[in-house]
């Protein structure tokens, strides 16, 4: 079969950067971020987080091809900001938000396990 190995979906080849920045030459305060080994899940999360930033005028992403495991995120900011700063801020906020969700999830599991142990007595 022509099916690629599963690890090809998430393991970066040696020498390949996870994220590459390319400034947009046609639009002021705009840039393209190519993120390797990611798909619509991460692309949509980043896009939505960028939309929460009042300094971001435009945020969108695309997958160049379904068999290429990368996304291209386009960001345009106001003259008061820079696309790289907005992108980094969005990623930092996403990491923080996901960590908070993970902590709440773990606490709830521990609470349910404790309730189950108390119920068994």
What this model shows, in words?
With 121 residues, this protein is of the alpha+beta class. 41% of the residues lie in helices and 22% in strands. It contains 2 helices and 4 strands. The protein has helices at residues 40-51, 83-120; strands at residues 19-23, 30-36, 56-62, 70-77. Strands 1-2-4-3 form a 4-stranded antiparallel sheet, covered by helices on one side. Strand 3 (56-62) and strand 4 form a beta hairpin. Helix 1 (40-51) crosses helix 2 (83-120). The longest helix has 38 residues, at 83-120. It is flat, with a radius of gyration of 19 Å. The termini are far apart.
Please tell me the overall pLDDT. Answer: 92
User: What's the helix-strand series?
Assistant: EEHEEH
Sheet with the most strands, sense and barrel status = 4 strands, antiparallel
Strand order in space, largest sheet: 1-2-4-3
Stretches where pLDDT is under 50 for at least 5 consecutive residues are none
Let me know the number of strands. Answer: 4
Instruction: Measure the end-to-end span.
Output: 55 Å
């Amino acid at each position: 079969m022509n099916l690629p190995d599963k690890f090809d979906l998430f393991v970066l080849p040696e020498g390949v950067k996870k994220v590459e920045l390319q400034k947009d030459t046609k639009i002021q305060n705009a840039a393209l971020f190519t993120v390797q080994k990611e798909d619509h899940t991460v692309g949509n999360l980043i896009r939505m987080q960028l939309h929460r930033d009042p300094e971001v005028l435009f945020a969108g992403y695309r997958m160049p091809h379904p068999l290429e495991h990368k996304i291209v995120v386009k960001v345009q900011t106001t003259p008061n900001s820079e696309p790289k700063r907005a992108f980094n801020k969005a990623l930092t906020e996403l990491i923080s938000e996901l960590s908070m969700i993970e902590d709440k999830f773990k606490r709830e599991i521990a609470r349910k396990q404790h309730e189950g142990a108390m119920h068994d007595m």
